[in-house]
Every structure is written in structure tokens, then in C-alpha cells.
Sequence to fold (187 residues):
Amino acid sequence: MSQREDLLRGAQECIAEKGYARTTARDITAASGANLASIGYYFGSKDALLHAAVIAAFDEWGTAVEDAMQDVADDVPLMRLQRFLESYIASLPARRNTLVSSIQAMAEAEYAPEVKQEIASSHDEGRRSLAALVLDVTPDEVTREDLATGSLVLSLMNGLALQWFISPDTAPSAAELATAIVALVEP
Fold:
């Protein structure tokens, strides 16, 4: 790995362990093995490095979602959603640091326009991909109305991730969520 990548990884570790606001430049250099001056050289400032780290965490989260999408195959949209959520939930323990960084990125977006723009772009792409997955169409075939389905799935994912983060033992399973959806639409 290059020193720039080491700094990014070190910053992500520090964000997950100490929090965005509590991470110092010295923490990052200790975690990455890089020297203090390299932060300025590669990123300009500690804040710019932290922003880059949370954006990279969002990219990693997108990869986790794409991986979860690979395991989905069914004819019924609700079952595709359930299979996807099962795979997604199974990926959460291994991606805890990415989840922590992503949660903190959401809060930081209020103060960092570049982070907010990156998250917005990721969500736009995610809604289209998730709608395509659940509706079993290509992303190019997703209509404006279909994007609401992608938004619903994204909301389920984000809410589920937060519930799992706070209390993994009480977070709902994919089957429980599918049952709840059915209960809402069937009188």
C-alpha cells in the first residue's frame, strides 16, 4: 500500500475507534505508520484526510451492497428483497468499521459539502441499483416511479444498519422485515 492509502486506512480505523471529532493527526499517523508531514503532503490537512476517509468508507459500503446483490435470485420482488437483506445483514459484522465511519459521515455531511455531495451521489446510484435488483430489471429500465422502490430499500438498509449497530441482538431479520411488509399491504 502507498503512504496515501495507509493514511486513509489509518484515518478510517481512528474514526471507527475514536470518532470523527476525537481523531487527531497524531492518532492517524500512529495507526498508519506514516509521518505527520505526509498528511499535509497528500491531503492538505487533517480535516481533508478525514473527509477523504469517510468518502472512501462510503465507497466500501457500496462494495458491500454490490456483494450482497450478487446472491439474489428469485422471481418474486419481495423474495428478492428478503434474499438481498439476508446477505446484507450477514455482511454487517465484517464491515463494522465501515458502518461506524459511514454513520459518522452522515453527521459530518452537514458541515462538509464535499462529503454531502458524495453521499448524495452514492444514494442516487444506490436507489437505481436497488430498484433494479428488487424489480428484476436493468438499471437503465428503472423509471422515475421505480426509484421510490429503491428509496424504500435504501431506507430499510440504513435503518437496519443503525438498529444492528445499536443492538445487533434485537435488530430484525430479513424474514421479519418481509413479513412486516406483507402485513402492511395485506388487510
